[in-house]
Design a protein that fits this description.
The complex is a heterodimer of chains A (about 575) and B (about 350).
Chain A: H1 17-23, H2 27-56, H3 66-100, H4 109-127, H5 155-184, H6 197-228, H7 242-276, H8 283-296, H9 313-338, H10 347-369, H11 372-378, H12 382-412, H13 418-444, H14 461-491, H15 529-534, H16 536-539, H17 546-551, H18 556-570
Helix pairs in contact in A: 2-3, 2-4, 2-14, 3-4, 3-5, 3-7, 3-12, 4-5, 5-6, 6-7, 6-8, 7-10, 7-12, 8-9, 9-10, 10-12, 10-13, 12-13, 13-14
Chain B: H1 4-27, H2 38-71, H3 89-118, E1 126-133, E2 136-140, E3 146-148, E4 155-160, E5 164-171, E6 176-180, E7 185-189, E8 199-204, E9 209-215, E10 227-233, H4 235-248, E11 263-269, E12 273-274, E13 278-282, E14 287-293, E15 302-303, E16 308-309, E17 318-323, E18 329-334, E19 343-349
Parallel strand pairs in B: 1-5, 4-10, 11-14, 13-19
Antiparallel strand pairs in B: 1-2, 2-3, 5-8, 6-7, 6-9, 9-10, 11-12, 14-17, 15-16, 15-18, 18-19
Classes of the chains: A mainly alpha (about 575), B alpha+beta (about 350).
């Protein structure tokens, strides 16, 4: 008798490859769309960075005029933050979060597609200012009154506002989706305190986006009304308040810093345990530190405004200083995870360690800037430029590349080439420090941000030249990465399901995973289900005790660990 | 005899530590300029203490990272698992306490220094009303002298040494910031409208000399050209200098020209531009320029080549100048406040 078996992997009907990607609601494909789209914007904003660094290499205006320069740094900042760092981490979250919690997809697949497709649209609108008389040129912070119609009449600023509002809407939709997915779609056994740290950081990030981004959207709309419909939110001559814009912007803008750093911390917290062959030290402390950073991030915004003379300095200085504590705890947890581990320096681990080493510098300079008397000297100088790049680039972007090298095998089924990865890392690491470390000294000696030129007598020439050389080194470092991605896609070593001996559920399925993600899930008794599956001997929970552990709602990790320790003691 | 593996390990720690040392030596120059005000010295001292904490944390953490990488590297073929530590509450409490103590100490020191930076005297030696505007500075003195500058050239800010100088910061348009690196101080100049009184800062300059300053808050295409120079001198010199400035204030060119044969109408339009970038005048005869300011900020008109610079014209006003006869050729006319955006060619034709 002939039987027809239904293969769940078979596509139900044939579709063209292009249409498939354009209409997909699969979280993995959307995740890849996010990542590819973000990298395109990364390269565009990177070229703008080269324009900036070329102009500043030596005194005098050589390459661009001041207006073009101002547009370049405005677009560079806006695009890097809103269309690269935030969405690329959302992209990894999109791909990885459902897999890590054992879900078949995000909670709202169609909203997921919508929140992605708003991004290229918003990004193109922001860039399209170049076609209509010049892009926005007020800096990524868009301070009023400079951004008011009478000081910046160009339509580029309006396009910047509209584009950013769309991008913000995309973020908000994505955040709702992450929160719903993480709370409602976890596999049986995946309690909150068994979630991988990356999922935790994406959850806290989503809450921050949900609370902060609507504030920015409101501010942008108010600015749009001021510019186009005779509003007076920020115009002091008719009773408005220019400081209000700064409050609104930074009430969003400081949580935004954690929106881009927390997921990168999550990535690093996945990679360091795997490549040290140890669990993350102090899992719960790490979770609480993440939540603490999220909460504190809403009470520190005015440390961007110390020099306005309009904020309560001791309060904001104190709250800012407090953020150093949970951040310090995290640093110690990472270090303790490496302590007495068995460390493999594969490329993902190199980038993760690069994150620790560089984010530390950004953290330290952040505490310095949080002291109002010091900030009075350093605010709006290149020291701030150094600080923010050590956080955004040394932190988030190192995290992004760590994630790319770590999860590429899962996404494509192919390994990236290790030697090319290492070349990429070292060029990137050295180029980054050459570019941004000198900025500390430039700022200390008084070079303000956002100037297109400086006097040859100021003594800033050599450091600027070094910085420019570094910037081109970063640009060159992208080449081995791109070559690696293309070559590995074509001819990379097959990855298998679990090339890194991972801890978390994404490694329990095929690479790439099928559309529905899992044929079946391993038992989940801790935050490292895969570890206990592969290292069962002496590390897994005995079969007879399985149901007991499942009943324990929280603190299961300690239970398992306790079991393991007892067991090892007996052995 | 030491274990050979231990020696090579020690050597690799040293080789990994060498770049760290270089970074540290570089760190030795991570200092602000030599402070030239009393409060600036306090900020400098605070900074040095903070930098010392930072250096200890930096060396400790980076050193640990390098040590861990070298010491705990997985050997090829080693498939054993290290001990699976999940955490240690005592240690975690300790390392929550350490950063807490550090940041609290820093916070208290900052607040103490803040007191000295923000201290205000009852009777400042001089109170200077500073107006920042796109893209020049105006410094108004109680003696009635106002020093205005041309954009791109440092405007002089004379002050006496050794007594409190109060700076009141106004803005005529967008946000600016008054920044003198060698004073380690900066404050925004913002048009607060009715929301708040203008920002004030106060400092006592400790040493005579000239100190460069510039706008630190991005304010448009002339941002880099908003430069000034503090000229600090002993009180006697300062008084003489101010008296000389008051006496030598060259009166602006007289307005007039009702009976001009040729009158060139020039208008300053909204968002900082002239209505034209080329004007024409006849050779070898006097002509007039009538500047009408339709913008919302002050403008003026000048001709660089003949050293003619008109007065600033308030919004809505206009002024006419008689320009003495010029030879044929091309000249530059401009607004000295906004030469970045308001510049054009005056062609004197035969």
């Amino acid at each position: 008798m002939a039987t027809t078996t239904l293969d769940p992997r078979a596509d139900t009907y044939g579709r063209s490859w292009v249409l498939d990607w354009l209409t997909t609601v699969d979280h993995k494909k959307i995740g890849i769309l996010y990542i590819v789209n973000s990298f395109i914007f990364f390269f565009a904003a990177g070229i703008l960075a080269l324009v900036i660094r070329s102009e500043l290499a030596v005194p005098g205006l050589q390459f661009v005029d001041v207006e073009t320069y101002n547009q370049a740094f405005t677009m560079h900042g806006t695009i890097m933050i809103f269309l690269f760092v935030v969405p690329v981490l959302s992209g990894f979250g999109n791909y990885i979060v459902p897999l890590q919690i054992g879900a078949p997809d995000m909670a709202f697949p169609r909203i997921n597609a919508l929140s992605f497709w708003l991004l290229p649209l918003g990004g193109l609108l922001i860039f399209s200012g170049y076609l209509f008389g010049g892009a926005a040129a007020e800096g990524w912070t868009g301070y009023a009154p400079l951004a008011a119609e009478r000081f910046s009449p160009g339509v580029g600023t309006d396009l910047w506002i509209i584009g950013l509002t769309l991008v913000g809407t995309a973020s908000i939709l994505g955040a709702v989706n992450f929160i719903a997915t993480i709370f409602k779609m976890r596999a049986p056994g995946m309690t909150l305190f068994r979630m991988p740290i990356f999922v935790w950081t994406m959850l806290v990030t989503a809450v921050l986006i949900l609370l902060a981004t609507p504030v920015l959207a409101g501010g942008l709309i108010a600015l749009f009304i001021d510019r186009n419909y005779g509003g007076s939110f920020f115009d002091p001559s008719v009773g408005g308040n220019p400081i209000l814009w700064q409050h609104i912007f930074w009430f969003f803008g400081h949580p935004e810093v954690y929106i881009v750093i927390l997921p990168a911390m999550g990535v690093v917290s996945e990679i360091i345990p795997v490549f040290s062959r140890k669990p993350l030290f102090g899992y719960k402390a790490f979770v609480f530190a993440t939540i603490a950073i999220g909460l504190l991030s809403f009470s520190v915004w005015a440390h961007h405004m110390f020099t306005t003379g309009q904020v309560l300095l001791p309060f904001f200085a104190f709250m800012t200083t407090l953020i150093g504590i949970p951040t310090g705890v995290k640093m110690f947890n990472w270090l303790a995870t490496m302590w007495r581990g068995k460390i493999t320096l594969a490329t993902p681990m190199l980038f993760a360690i690069g994150f620790l080493a560089m984010f530390l510098i950004g953290g330290i300079s952040g505490v310095m800037l949080g002291q109002p008397p010091i900030d009075f000297h350093l605010q709006d100088t290149y020291f701030v430029v150094a600080h923010l790049h050590y956080v955004f680039f040394g932190g988030s972007v190192f995290g992004v590349f760590a994630a790319a090298y770590y999860w590429f095998p899962k996404m494509t089924g192919r390994m990236l080439n290790e030697p090319l990865g290492k070349v990429h890392f070292w060029l990137h690491f050295i180029g980054f420090n050459l570019t941004f470390f000198p900025h500390h000294q430039l700022g200390l000696s008084g070079m303000p941000r956002r100037i297109a030129d400086y006097s040859p007598d100021a003594g800033w020439t050599i450091l600027n030249l070094i910085s420019t050389v570094g910037a081109f080194m970063i640009a060159v470092s992208v080449l081995p990465f791109l070559i690696n991605v293309v070559a590995s896609l074509i001819n990379g070593e097959p990855a298998g399901d679990d090339p890194w001996e991972g801890n978390t559920l994404e490694w329990a399925t095929t690479s790439p995973p099928p559309p529905y993600n899992f044929d079946r899930l391993p038992p989940i008794h801790s935050e490292r289900p895969l570890f206990y599956l592969t290292h069962g001997h002496g590390h897994a929970v005995a079969a007879g005790r399985e149901h007991e552990v499942e009943e324990a709602e929280e603190g299961a990790d300690e239970d398992v660990a306790g079991d393991v320790e007892k067991r090892e003691g007996l052995v | 005899m030491p274990h050979p593996g231990a020696r090579s390990r020690a050597r690799s720690i040293v080789s990994a530590g060498a770049p760290l040392l270089v970074v540290l030596l570089l760190g030795g120059c991570l200092l602000p300029p030599d402070p030239k005000t009393e409060a600036g010295q306090d900020v400098f001292n605070l900074y040095v203490v903070v930098l010392a904490f930072a250096a200890v944390v930096f060396v400790g953490v980076e050193g640990f990272i390098v040590y861990a990488i070298v010491r705990y590297r997985r050997q090829p073929g080693d498939n054993t698992l290290p001990e699976q530590h999940h955490g240690n509450t005592k240690v975690e409490i300790l390392w929550t306490a350490i950063p807490s103590v550090i940041v609290l100490v820093l916070f208290i020191m900052s607040i103490i220094t803040l007191g000295s930076v923000e201290a205000r005297s009852d009777e400042p030696g001089v109170t200077i009303e500073v107006t920042a505007k796109q893209w020049t500075w105006d410094f108004s003195y109680p003696e009635g002298v106002t020093i205005s500058g041309r954009s791109g050239e440092p405007t002089e800010l004379p002050v006496p040494v050794g007594e409190p100088i109060r700076i009141v910061l106004h803005s005529a348009d967008v946000n600016h910031a008054f920044f003198v690196p060698q004073f380690l101080i900066k404050r925004d100049a913002i048009d607060m409208g009715e929301n708040a009184s203008p920002n004030e800062i106060e400092f006592v300059v400790t040493e005579a000399g000239t100190y460069a300053g510039q706008c630190a808050e991005f304010c448009g295409i002339g941002h880099k050209d908003m430069i000034f120079v503090v000229n600090a001198m002993p009180r006697a010199d300062y008084d003489a200098h101010m008296a000389a400035l008051a006496a030598s204030e060259t009166p602006p060119p007289a307005a007039g020209g009702e009976d001009c044969a040729t009158t060139i109408a020039l208008a300053a339009e909204e968002s900082i531009r002239f209505d034209t970038d080329s004007i024409e005048a006849p050779e070898d005869e006097d002509f007039c320029i009538e500047l009408t300011n339709n913008d919302i900020v002050e403008h003026n008109v000048g001709i660089d080549e003949i050293g003619f610079y008109g007065e600033n014209v308030a919004p809505g006003e206009s002024i006419t100048y008689v320009i003495p006869a010029m030879e044929a050729g091309e000249y530059t006319f401009l607004c000295t406040l906004h030469p970045q955006a308001m510049v054009g060619v005056l062609t004197v034709t035969e």
